């Protein structure tokens, strides 16, 4: 559905027919001390005067109760607002109206939560549930002090307005009201945008629809005539989102950001016909499957899954390829996993006969390619994937002869008639027994086999009973302290780390593959530790755990975070590190209190020395692959310590480059990753160059909210300032007289950074040369222009 101005002509006519000012409201006043209780039987609530809406508790499956507003005269009892979507309460919980506002008390914990503002001092006199679906707290002269319309969840209703910085969050699934993976927001800059979120955080990830009204959008209005449109501050209409010619007197209406990421405008006839249902009048974006292409994240349907769109279907369909199954049966957008044993790399060539391909037409998983061949035919593409244990899926384009190889997890999967590629999904063949062999088995042979098995079992049981006591303790220790070959680290039990972290209570940080918790080792004089707990996605193939242990166990340097030990007990995989009391460079650099120039110089030099150790001084050269401020931690003395070796790549002593799939974080990734070229230690030099620019200027490399669009990308802006001799402009975020007075020193650091981020890896200095330039033992020559433009493959 397009966002177009021509609709506004019809829209204005409807506005004239039924302006907001003519809408009358009847109140059923709710007095002080009124309360509702969540209970199994019955459904006590506060209804609106017409009975069309109600406010109270709703039972949500077996999970608890939601304090909500819903359509009360239709069969579905559709919920349009909730107060505790992220924290359901238990049976017996209450909501009470007092002079302080609406207070929710959880019967299980006794916790009290203010649903409305604490308005006792401002003259609140009564509460009321209105026929518009709005719950209000008002003064005696009917001035609203608080209203649910100002705090929307996933739905807006006729007469409701979204102001700048208002946001709708989709619920997680059809039955889980937790804030989910999508958001609809009118930003402070006036742009109305649909985003994917960095779930479970609320932060935005990728925008997949917008009105492109930066600088002009002011309010989203859903009027009584059933039209939803965006206005400027002067009231002029910038564009129509949806417009329904059907009167709200005959139809219920709502606009909901559904759990599949689509904003839909719904209507429902106001009749007593129980067979009626919500009909979709309009929706955005037109096709969610093709609209979302995430650099990080699983796309519209999750990792390894496929998204298909049907205008007639109530929700976008998410499915798994053949021989893949859902990771979570209750959440189809959590992605899919292989339901077979993957191909082993040490036996890839001998196992090719055990695998075949499922061909899926008009299907692609954009991004995630690690190899590209052209021109080839389909059989060549299949054979190349068969011979490659890393290849899980290949995309073949019959028209152009392109073959892209992808490893899991892969994202943005879609099946659509506009897609030109055919997906070749590698699956393991079934291996049924030969029926002729079954027919040849005689009863005598079967009996002999059974007797042999029985004899072996008896011998094994007797042997076990004899030696049980001798080896019991040794077996127990082996079970609790599994050994990782070649690593000499302390092995912790899971219970030991659970106690140290107080049940994994204090979270220090969270990433795509793990969560880090603070802990205290009682057995080591109360020493503080950081415990990294790998999540289910990282555990699936064990690579994340082995990569981190293998990389860090070989290191010992003052500018690297030290690995103290690990736990690998069943499904539990944890890494134990030194605790860094001053957090990450990102929080120190981009927080309210900026580090001074001396601290920034020391951090830059310490980080370079840590990388020098990884590149030149380890027994096996290590490419970190993900240098960024979040992975540089600060100890008690603010010494830089490089962390997070989860994506590190080890190189053999006679190896200088490697071919591998894209790793790292957007904004810090060297351009050769996107060109399917072999990568070297120079990718870390590029990432370090971006970080060095951020350290010097105390701002992020990319700031979408920059006042001047020329300043959005720090690398480009910094080079322009350097070329135009306007370096003082780069210190706007820095309140440091030493830095302001040392423009020459600043210029030197910028020149080093520009050398590091050259597009051609061969032009970049080694990290040893960078360290020497920082220390002043090597002169810094004038750098060429580091172009910020690079082409991503496919």
From TrEMBL:
<dbReference type="InterPro" id="IPR001480">
    <property type="entry name" value="Bulb-type_lectin_dom"/>
</dbReference>
<dbReference type="GO" id="GO:0016020">
    <property type="term" value="C:membrane"/>
</dbReference>
<keyword id="KW-0732">Signal</keyword>
<dbReference type="InterPro" id="IPR008271">
    <property type="entry name" value="Ser/Thr_kinase_AS"/>
</dbReference>
<keyword id="KW-0808">Transferase</keyword>
<comment type="similarity">
    <text>Belongs to the protein kinase superfamily. Ser/Thr protein kinase family.</text>
</comment>
<keyword id="KW-0472">Membrane</keyword>
<feature type="transmembrane region" description="Helical">
    <location>
        <begin position="444"/>
        <end position="467"/>
    </location>
</feature>
<keyword id="KW-1015">Disulfide bond</keyword>
<dbReference type="GO" id="GO:0004674">
    <property type="term" value="F:protein serine/threonine kinase activity"/>
</dbReference>
<dbReference type="InterPro" id="IPR000719">
    <property type="entry name" value="Prot_kinase_dom"/>
</dbReference>
<dbReference type="Pfam" id="PF00069">
    <property type="entry name" value="Pkinase"/>
</dbReference>
<feature type="signal peptide">
    <location>
        <begin position="1"/>
        <end position="24"/>
    </location>
</feature>
<feature type="binding site">
    <location>
        <position position="532"/>
    </location>
    <ligand>
        <name>ATP</name>
    </ligand>
</feature>
<keyword id="KW-0675">Receptor</keyword>
<dbReference type="InterPro" id="IPR036426">
    <property type="entry name" value="Bulb-type_lectin_dom_sf"/>
</dbReference>
<dbReference type="InterPro" id="IPR017441">
    <property type="entry name" value="Protein_kinase_ATP_BS"/>
</dbReference>
<dbReference type="InterPro" id="IPR011009">
    <property type="entry name" value="Kinase-like_dom_sf"/>
</dbReference>
<keyword id="KW-0325">Glycoprotein</keyword>
<feature type="domain" description="Protein kinase">
    <location>
        <begin position="502"/>
        <end position="778"/>
    </location>
</feature>
<keyword id="KW-0245">EGF-like domain</keyword>
<dbReference type="InterPro" id="IPR051343">
    <property type="entry name" value="G-type_lectin_kinases/EP1-like"/>
</dbReference>
<keyword id="KW-0547">Nucleotide-binding</keyword>
<keyword id="KW-0430">Lectin</keyword>
<dbReference type="GO" id="GO:0005524">
    <property type="term" value="F:ATP binding"/>
</dbReference>
<keyword id="KW-0067">ATP-binding</keyword>
<protein>
    <recommendedName>
        <fullName>Receptor-like serine/threonine-protein kinase</fullName>
        <ecNumber>2.7.11.1</ecNumber>
    </recommendedName>
</protein>
<keyword id="KW-1133">Transmembrane helix</keyword>
<keyword id="KW-0812">Transmembrane</keyword>
<feature type="domain" description="Bulb-type lectin">
    <location>
        <begin position="33"/>
        <end position="150"/>
    </location>
</feature>
<dbReference type="Pfam" id="PF01453">
    <property type="entry name" value="B_lectin"/>
</dbReference>
<dbReference type="GO" id="GO:0030246">
    <property type="term" value="F:carbohydrate binding"/>
</dbReference>
<dbReference type="InterPro" id="IPR024171">
    <property type="entry name" value="SRK-like_kinase"/>
</dbReference>
<keyword id="KW-0418">Kinase</keyword>
<keyword id="KW-0723">Serine/threonine-protein kinase</keyword>
């Amino acid at each position: 559905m397009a966002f177009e101005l021509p609709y506004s002509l019809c829209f204005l006519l409807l506005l004239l027919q039924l302006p907001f000012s003519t809408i009358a409201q009847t109140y059923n006043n709710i007095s002080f001390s009124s309360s509702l209780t969540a209970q199994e039987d019955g459904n006590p609530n506060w209804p609106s005067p017409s009975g069309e809406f109600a406010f109270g508790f709703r039972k949500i499956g077996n999970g608890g109760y939601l304090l909500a507003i819903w359509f009360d005269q239709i069969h579905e009892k559709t919920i349009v607002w909730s107060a505790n979507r992220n924290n359901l309460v238990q049976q017996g919980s209450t909501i009470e109206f007092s002079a302080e506002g609406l207070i929710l008390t959880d019967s299980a914990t006794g916790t009290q939560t203010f649903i409305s503002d604490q308005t006792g001092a401002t003259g609140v006199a009564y509460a009321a549930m209105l026929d518009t679906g709005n719950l209000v707290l008002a003064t005696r002269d009917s001035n609203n002090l608080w209203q649910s319309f100002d705090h929307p969840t996933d739905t807006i209703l006729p007469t409701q307005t979204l102001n700048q910085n208002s946001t709708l969050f989709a619920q997680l699934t059809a039955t889980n009201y937790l804030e989910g993976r999508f958001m609809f927001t009118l930003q402070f800059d006036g742009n109305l945008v649909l985003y994917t979120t960095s779930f479970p955080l609320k932060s935005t990830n990728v925008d997949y629809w917008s009105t492109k009204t930066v600088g002009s959008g002011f309010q989203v209005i859903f009027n009584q005539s059933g039209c939803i449109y965006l206005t400027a501050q002067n009231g002029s209409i910038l564009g129509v989102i949806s417009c329904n010619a059907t009167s709200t007197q005959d139809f219920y209406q709502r606009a909901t950001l559904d759990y599949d990421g689509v904003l839909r405008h719904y209507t429902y006839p106001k009749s007593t016909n129980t067979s009626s249902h919500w009909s979709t009048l309009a929706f955005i974006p037109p096709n969610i499957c093709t609209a979302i292409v995430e650099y990080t994240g699983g796309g519209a349907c999750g990792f390894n899954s496929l998204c298909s769109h049907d205008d007639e279907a109530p929700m976008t369909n998410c499915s798994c390829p053949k021989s893949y199954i859902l990771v979570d049966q209750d959440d189809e957008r959590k992605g899919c996993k292989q339901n077979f044993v993957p191909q082993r790399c040490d036996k890839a060539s001998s196992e090719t006969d055990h695998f075949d391909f499922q061909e899926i037409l008009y299907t692609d998983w954009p991004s995630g390619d690690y190899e590209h061949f052209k021109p080839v035919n389909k059989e060549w593409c299949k054979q190349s994937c068969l011979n490659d244990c890393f290849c899980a899926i290949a995309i073949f384009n019959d028209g152009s002869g392109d073959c892209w190889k992808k490893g899991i997890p892969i994202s943005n999967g879609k099946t659509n008639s506009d897609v030109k590629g055919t997906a070749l999904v590698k699956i393991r063949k079934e291996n049924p027994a030969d029926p002729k062999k079954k027919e040849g088995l005689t009863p005598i042979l079967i009996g002999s086999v059974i007797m042999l098995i029985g004899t072996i079992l008896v011998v094994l049981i007797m042997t076990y009973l004899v030696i049980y006591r001798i080896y019991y303790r040794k077996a127990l220790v082996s079970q609790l302290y599994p050994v990782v070959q070649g690593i000499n680290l302390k092995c912790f039990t899971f219970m030991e780390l659970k106690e140290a972290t107080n049940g994994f209570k204090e979270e220090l940080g969270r990433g795509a593959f793990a969560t880090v918790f603070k802990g205290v080792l009682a057995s080591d004089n109360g020493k503080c530790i950081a415990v990294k707990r790998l999540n289910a996605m990282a555990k699936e193939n064990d690579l994340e755990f082995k990569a981190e242990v293998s990389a860090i166990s070989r290191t010992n340097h003052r500018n690297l975070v030290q690995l103290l030990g690990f736990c690998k007990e069943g499904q539990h995989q944890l890494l134990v590190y030194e605790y860094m009391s001053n957090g990450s460079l990102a929080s120190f650099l981009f927080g309210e209190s900026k580090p001074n120039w001396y601290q920034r110089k020391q951090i830059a030099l310490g980080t370079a020395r840590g990388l020098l150790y990884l590149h030149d001084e380890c027994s096996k050269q290590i490419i970190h692959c993900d240098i960024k401020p979040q992975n540089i931690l600060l100890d008690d003395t603010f010494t830089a310590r490089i962390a997070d070796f989860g994506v590190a790549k080890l190189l053999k002593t006679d190896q200088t480059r490697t071919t591998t799939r894209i790793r790292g974080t957007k904004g810090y990734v060297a351009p050769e990753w996107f060109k399917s070229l072999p990568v070297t230690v120079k990718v870390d030099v590029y990432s370090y160059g971006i970080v060095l620019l951020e350290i010097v200027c105390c701002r992020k490399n990319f700031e979408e909210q920059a006042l001047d669009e020329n300043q959005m990308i720090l690398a480009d802006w910094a080079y322009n300032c350097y070329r135009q001799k306007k370096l003082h402009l780069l210190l706007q975020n820095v309140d440091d007289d030493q830095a302001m007075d040392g423009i020459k020193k600043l210029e030197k650091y910028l020149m080093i950074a520009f050398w590091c981020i050259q597009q051609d890896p061969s032009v970049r200095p080694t990290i040893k040369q960078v360290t020497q330039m920082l220390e002043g033992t090597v002169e810094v020559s004038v750098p060429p222009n580091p172009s910020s433009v690079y082409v991503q493959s496919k």
